[in-house]
Amino acid sequence: xxxxxxxxxxxxxxxxxDGVVRAVNGVSFTLKHGEALGIVGESGCGKSVACxxxxxxxxxxxxxxxxxxxxxxxxxxxxxxxKMRSVRGNEMAFIFQEPMTSLNPVYTIGFQLxxxxxxxxxxxxxxxxxxxxxxxxxxxxxxxxxxxxxxxHCLSGGMxxxxxxxxxxxxxxxxxxxxxPTTALDVTIQAQILQLMRDLKExxxxxxxxxxxDLGVISEMVDRVIVMYCGxxxxxxxxxxxxxxxxHPYTIGLINSKPQxxxxxxxxxxxxxxxxxxLQMPSGCPYHPxxxxxxxxxxxxxxxxxxxxxxxxxxxxxxxxxxxxVRQ
Length: 328
Hints:
Blueprint: E1 3-16, E2 19-32, E3 36-40, H1 47-54, E4 62-65, E5 68-71, E6 74-75, H2 81-87, E7 92-95, H3 99-102, H4 109-121, H5 125-138, H6 144-147, H7 157-169, E8 175-179, H8 187-204, E9 207-212, H9 215-221, E10 224-229, E11 232-238, H10 239-244, H11 249-256, E12 305-309, E13 312-315, H12 321-327
Parallel strand pairs: 3-9, 3-10, 7-8, 8-9
Antiparallel strand pairs: 1-2, 1-4, 1-5, 5-6, 10-11, 11-13, 12-13
Helix pairs in contact: 4-5, 5-7, 7-8
């Protein structure tokens, strides 16, 4: 199967008064039709910025650079802004983390759904309204005709998130970015939203890039996982390998720091230290100040990308011949 999305050497930087912040540094990955890809990491690791960069939603003082960002062979970096507007919401859509700040409080839910449908699909007012109601019904909202006439503040958190999903899927995009769509919801509603997204993915075959810091949620939702740290990809494999056979010390730390319902433990195991200041990044591997396995070479050189098993890549000196020589 050919790749739907190809991202090669994506770099996003922000020019501030204190210096240049490199939020995304050399990120490369591919996404196939109908695939679910998870991007995992702590807050501030560059997950959301990378996805916003792919949709070219980073404005000044941000700067996006890449060798290529191909959507079905078309380089999005070469598109003029008016062409990108036709791509956003139509071929690529974004579910933002907080629906209350993403929905316009002065327009009804139905109006906001209609706006995207009329813009991208050219339907008249009556047909676009009917499709809006149908989309609300598809995402499990009761009384969709009535809800379409309501304003965002009249809906619960779960209902607002369903409305955001309906809006993102209204034009049946090829790629859907979901930026921690369940973070602000209680556990029961969270489970319903995740099940809804699984069902919709199967129904319309949309490829999903699921952004989260929660490996538990990721393990239920995606086929393949990318782990990011300080704007870089440090490990990539299918979901089972990441959960069961993680290699990078940071990935292992993320897994160990999550409580397990079937284990009786007195104390969680946190990752020591803290994320470095992006204006004062350490030399070599950015994780080495926090890593219990750090070697001399870790502070001197960025680790190479190694394939430790079929399709399982890790950027860590622990798995390279050069690292072996240092240990010896």
